[in-house]
Structures are given as structure tokens and as C-alpha cells.
Amino acid sequence: MEAFFEWFRALYEQSGWNFVFIYEQYERERFITAMWTTIKLSIYCLLFSLVVGVVGAWAQGAKSAIVRNVMAGYIQVFRNTPPLVQILFFYFVLGTGLDRAGLMPTYDAGGYLEPMLGAFGWAVISLSFFAGAFNVEIFRSGIEAVPESTVEAAEALGYSRLMAYIYVVLPLAFRVSLPALNNNLVNLIKTTTLAYVIAVPEMMYTANQIWSDNVNVPEMMIVLFIFYVGLVAILVYFMHKWEHAMRIPGYGT
Amino acid sequence: MAWDESQPMVSINDVHKSFGELKVLNGVSFDVMKREVICIIGPSGSGKSTLIRCVNALNTIDKGSITVQGQEVHDPKLDKLELRKKVGMVFQQYNLFPHKTALENVMMAPTHVLKQDKAEVEERAYKLIKKVRLDGKERSYPGELSGGQQQRVAIARSLAMNPDVMLFDEVTAALDPETVKEVLVTIQELAEDGMTCMLVTHEMGFARELADHIYFTDRGIIVEHGPPVTFFTDAKDPRTKEFLSQIL
Ligand SMILES: Nc1ncnc2c1ncn2[C@@H]1O[C@H](COP(=O)(O)OP(=O)(O)OP(=O)(O)O)[C@@H](O)[C@H]1O
Ligand SMILES: [Mg+2]
């Protein structure tokens, strides 16, 4: 391992290519932390955006017109504004607003109080709602693809509407939605880079810090590029595996 | 008052039903006793499906009454689950759950709805699949089965709830002529076991052979009815005569 690090130090000395985050321990640690932050951010956002999608699609079919209108408004707003503006809005307007109103719970971070919801938390919330708005639409078209007669068959067997939704509609709608969902989740991972504007120490932000300190912009760009290619490839790999596992023999295509 | 077998299993009394302006049922009344097999026939659009769907509350009615084992179906306080445990239904388009195997299709409702023990339900499901002569197909998905096989799974799925009455809405209408027979045989065996059956059908030979009573509907009323012998040979109403002359 040491030899590997030293090879990069030598590379720098001989050629000027400075992959400082490999051979300098301090930079290496913040780089690794950044990778984990991006991965964590991606996973949280993926999961929450799916929850938003499922609950939202259910709410769109609600009896109450108010609930349906709120959902429609939410989707319009989040689909039609830039995610960069959303994330800034959440952090600076909602975050600051809650702080000023004294509504933000705090915790003791070793002598001083920190808000419960920091930049990372706001990034998760804003990005989840952003991707969630698309997921709602994706799931809704999946749900609409399930024939009413199939739901009726479940009801004739004694299923309530909710149980038919859980056991019949969702599993079928999910399969129909997977390709579109796949696209949207890839998009979400790409969008997590926006968290750098509110100083979440994820890859984009940390790369920026490293190149500011070491003046190695091209090197950091190469690494960022490779990192995101890899991260998206992993997601796509699992989504395809999932799609494959969910395939029903003799159904659909 | 508790229901007993001397009373009708299903009792339909002066049922009216409209979809918006369209009056579909205009006062239909008849009773079905336990173990009876009745067939409803009639031209397309005469309200046969609507009527049969009212019996398990898939459709509501505007006026009149329908009781199943003495329990009023069109009571706003109706316990739908209680009703649907008693009344099974098979549809023209099978409507199986495509993401589940044949066996799982049969097992789903008893495990999810009745919360019965899974191992016990599975054992029963195997027996039901055997009963509809699909042993060996337990692990097949609906998309891998022929129409006739799917329809028999649908019958088994319905039987898994242990219903007292079975409703069949043109269950052979979507099938190839060769596969119609296998489904009809299944229904016949069911009837011979004593299941109370209400069938909407265009299979006149089947109706003649199996039905205890035949009802002919046109424009939302029962125009003519009787046991098959008299119904097929001695129809009085001109509409019935015309329909029979077209179909036989
Ligand atoms: N949910 C509905 N909304 C509006 N109209 C309906 C609905 N269901 C049925 N109808 C109408 O009610 C009439 C009777 O329909 P129904 O399905 O009961 O006829 P049917 O006798 O079963 O005909 P078929 O032999 O073609 O199946 C038809 O004119 C149909 O268009
Ligand atoms: Mg019909």
C-alpha cells in the first residue's frame, strides 16, 4: 500500500501530475470521507425519493380533492424549477426560517449546539422531493397500466382497496415503472453533486477544496469523472439485476 | 333470524339499476336455492353482467333488494369481506394476478384476507389445483398457461375461499372452442358436488344439460324463465324465440 502511495508521489515529482489525495494522508482522508458522503447521500435520497413516489402516487388517487391538488401543486413546482434553486431554497429559506423561529431542534455537539438538520439533512430532503416528484409520475403511470379488472378480481376475493393496492397493484405497477425509474435514479445520483452549493462535504465539494489547496484541477476532474461513471455503473448494474429478478415469465414483452 | 337451507341462498327482489341515464335493470326478481344451478342468458347489453355483479356488490343497486343467505347485500353497513367469503366470482377475462404462480394465485386470498395458516392453505391449494386438473402447473405463471388453464386456475382461486355460491360471467366466452370443454367440465363437477352456481353463458348445450333453471333477460327484465326442458322447447315470448332461433 505504501509503495502504491509513493508511486503517485514519484509520479508528481517526475511528471507534474498531482494526485495528492492518494499520497497525502490528510487529503486522502477527506477524499475517502467525501466518497462515503456521496454514497450515503445517494442512498438516502434514493430511498426517500422512492417513499415519496409511492406515497405520492397513492395520494394522487385520494378521494379528497385537497390532497390531490396539493400533490399536483407539489409535482408542478418540483418538476418545473431548477434543482439547484430548490436546494438553495430549502437550505437558506426553510433552514434559516426554522432556526429563526426557534423551531429547529438542536443537539449538543460537544459543548456547542448544532441544529438537528444540517446541510446534509437539507440536501437529502430537497433532493428526495426533487426526484420524488418524478417518481410519483412514474409510479402513477405504472399504476394506471394495471387493469381495473385485476383489482376487481382481488376485491371479489375479499381484498379491501388498500390491500389490493399493496398486494396486486403496487407489485405490478413497480415492474412497469422500473425502466423509467432506472433513468430517474441515475439522474438523482448525478444531481447529488448540487449539494456542494450548501457545503455538504461530498465529492464535488471536496474535490473543489482539494484543487483549491493544491492547484490540481485537471487531476481532480479526472477523478470526479471516473468516480461518477463508477457510481452510476453500480446503480445501473443493480437496477438491471432487479429488473431481471422481477421479470414475470410470460408477462408483458 | 338465522338463515337455513329451506330459504333461498340468493334472493333477488325487484332490482333496479341505472348507469347515469341508461336503465340497465328494470325490476328483476328471482330466488336461487342451495345446490341449484341457474343460467342467465340473453342478448348483449341486456344487463346480465350487471345483475350478477350486484350479487357480490361489485355493482351497487338503486332500488330493490338482494340477499345472500338472508344477509342484505345492499346495506351501506354491509361487511363486504363477510359477503365475499360467501360469494366467489369468475370473470370472462380470468383476471389472474400475473406476477404470481398458479399456486400463489390460489393461496393469496386465504392467506392475505382470511389470515389462514400458510402451510394449511398451501396443502388445500395443491388439492384445488388437482381438482381443476392442473397438477404439475403449480409453479407456472398465468402468462405461461393457455386461456382454458388460466380460467381453471381462476376457478380454483375462487374456491380457495370456500364460497357458498359461485358466480360465473361468460367464463368460456374468451376461449378457443377446444378449451371451452375443459372449463365446462370443471364447472359441471363443481355443480355435481353441490355448489350453488349462477352462470351467465352463451353455451346453450351446457345450460340445457346442467341448469336447474334458465332465465332469459332482455332490456333489464326477465322475459321468460323455466327449467331447461320447457325453456328450450316451449318458449312463449317472441323475443326468447327469436334469440333461441339465432343461437341454436
Ligand atoms: N360501469 C358502467 N358504466 C356505464 N355503463 C355501463 C357500465 N357497465 C355496463 N354498462 C352498460 O350497461 C348495459 C348492460 O351491460 P352488461 O354488461 O350488464 O350487459 P351484458 O348483458 O352482460 O352484455 P354482454 O353479453 O355483452 O356481456 C350496457 O349497455 C353497458 O354499456
Ligand atoms: Mg356481460
Distinctive features:
heterodimer; A: 253 residues; mainly alpha; MetI-like fold; two-stranded antiparallel ribbon; 10 helices; 2 strands; globular; B: 248 residues; alpha/beta; Rossmann fold; six-stranded mixed β-sheet; four-stranded antiparallel β-sheet; 10 strands; binds adenosine-5'-triphosphate; binds magnesium ion
Number of helices of chain A: 10
Sequence of secondary-structure elements of chain A: HHHHHEEHHHHH
Q: Can you tell me the CATH topology of chain B?
A: Rossmann fold
What's the arrangement of strands in the largest beta sheet of chain A? Answer: 1-2
Low-confidence stretches of chain B: none
Q: What is the multimeric organization of the chains shown?
A: heterodimer
β-sheet strand percentage of chain B: 15-25%
Give a count of the beta strands of chain B, DSSP E runs of length 2 or more: 10
CATH homologous superfamily assignment of chain A: MetI-like
Number of domains of chain B: 1
Summarize the biggest pleated sheet of chain B: 6 strands, mixed
Give the largest interface.
Answer: A-B, 22 and 30 residues
**What is the molecular shape of chain B?**
globular
Order of strands in the sheet with most strands of chain B: 6-7-8-3-9-10
Which range best describes the helical content of chain B: under 10%, 10-25%, 25-40%, 40-55%, 55-70% or over 70%? Answer: 25-40%
Which sequence of SSEs, written as H and E, runs from N to C of chain B?
EEEHEEHEHHHEHEHEEHH
Describe the fold and architecture.
The complex is a heterodimer of chains A (253) and B (248). With 253 residues, chain A is an all-alpha fold. Chain A has one domain: Orthogonal Bundle (MetI-like fold), CATH 1.10.3720.10. Chain A contains 10 helices and 2 strands; from the N terminus they run αααααββααααα. The longest helix of chain A is centred in the N-terminal third of the chain and has 36 residues, at 25-60. The model of chain A has no long low-confidence stretch (mean pLDDT 91). Chain B is built from 9 helices and 10 strands. Chain B has a single domain, classed as Rossmann fold (3-Layer(aba) Sandwich), CATH 3.40.50. Helix content of chain B is 37%, strand content 24%. In chain B, the strands form 2 sheets. A 6-stranded mixed sheet of chain B has the order 6-7-8-3-9-10, sandwiched between helices. A 4-stranded antiparallel sheet of chain B has the order 2-1-4-5, covered by helices on one side. Chains A and B meet through helix 7 and helix 8 of A and helix 2, helix 3 and helix 5 of B. The complex binds adenosine-5'-triphosphate and magnesium ion. Residues 19, 22, 24, 42, 44-50 of chain B line the site of adenosine-5'-triphosphate (ATP).
